[in-house]
Amino acid sequence: MAMSALETARATARRRSAAPDPALAAIAAEIRRRPGAPLALSVASARDAGAAVATEALDAEHALAALALGAITVSLAPADPAASTAALAVVAVVRAMLTAIGVEPRLVGVEGDAPPRAPVRPPLADLDWSAPRGLRMRACLAHLARVAGGWNGDAPLPLPAGAPAGAVTVSQACTLCFACTPECPTGALARGAEGVALVFREDACVQCGLCVEICPEGALAPLPRLAPPAAPVILAEDAPATCPDCGARFGSRRSLDQVRARLAADGWAAQNPELLARLALCEDCRARP
Fold first, then answer.
1. Hey, which end of the chain has fewer CB within 10 Å, N or C?
2. Segments of the chain assigned to CATH 3.30.70.20
3. Could you give the CA distance from residue 171 to residue 158 in angstroms, rounded to a whole number?
4. What is the C-alpha separation between 117 and 236, in angstroms, rounded?
């Protein structure tokens, strides 16, 4: 049964925020043993198929990390038809990302492809293996882009859909309900400490799409790209709603106004003026008789 968009986003979030898998250490060790050589990656069931490194699941991170760490080319060696389909999907995503950053896309392929002639590249020396997977992939992409001269780090570089780095855009439909912040697996989206604000850290975003699927207003959209390091930014903000009885702050004015507008549109507000007035109160004051 096909997964829903929300289930797919949750799976992507888990994968891209996960700790490193053992295959990454094996990839690094193999490249140290044969620097500047081609590297073959295989699924676990193909350990005897001649591949240098076996992985339990083919993933774009394996290919990007191998190139960034110094492999001259990377080939994926699937063991069965199902794995072959997965390998082709990974190759398509990785090639799209490589093309976007100015790197020869055929450096990554499947077993049997004729690899291009490629120069030896300086390896990425300071990859943080303890960082979430999406952030490691971002580091690999940035390194490869700089080495290829496709990105100098001064301005954002657009990436294809499915890339693990980027930003999030917010439309005026956002009511600052903050349904997205507790779901963000890397803390890229957070509630501002002062007032009512949605704060975003692009260097922590792995483009899992979970916030997009969670948003009840459909106000969020992904923006895959490589961007230079930057301080957190405020995507949306509003004044807090203030209780007229006790002065307590609760929610945002925008959210309260939207609820009122919806109730007015269906005629409920005209029929229940006293209840409509109580919407302006905080939860404690609403509970009082």
1. C
2. 1-19+153-238
3. 20
4. 48
Amino acid identity at 111: E
Residue at 159: amino acid letter: L
Q: Give the distance, in angstroms, between the CA of residue 94 and the centroid of all CA atoms in the same chain.
A: 15
pLDDT tens digits, residue range 254-276?
Answer: 888 877 777 777 776 667 777 77
Asked if 255 and 264 touch (Cβ cutoff 8 Å), the reply is no
Q: What is the pLDDT of residues 204-224, one digit of tens each?
A: 998 999 999 999 999 999 999
Looking only at the bridges linking them, the beta strands covering 74-77 and 39-43 are parallel
- Whole-prediction pTM value? 0.76
Give CATH for domain 1-19+153-238: 3.30.70.20
CA distance 213 to 219: 10
Take residue 176 and report the two structure tokens written for it. Answer: 């600052």
- At 87, give phi and psi (nearest 5°): -65, -45
User: Distance between CA 150 and CA 9 in Å, rounded?
Assistant: 30
Residues in the chain: 289
In this structure, what is the dihedral angle of CA atoms 244, 245, 251, 255, given to the nearest 10 degrees?
-50
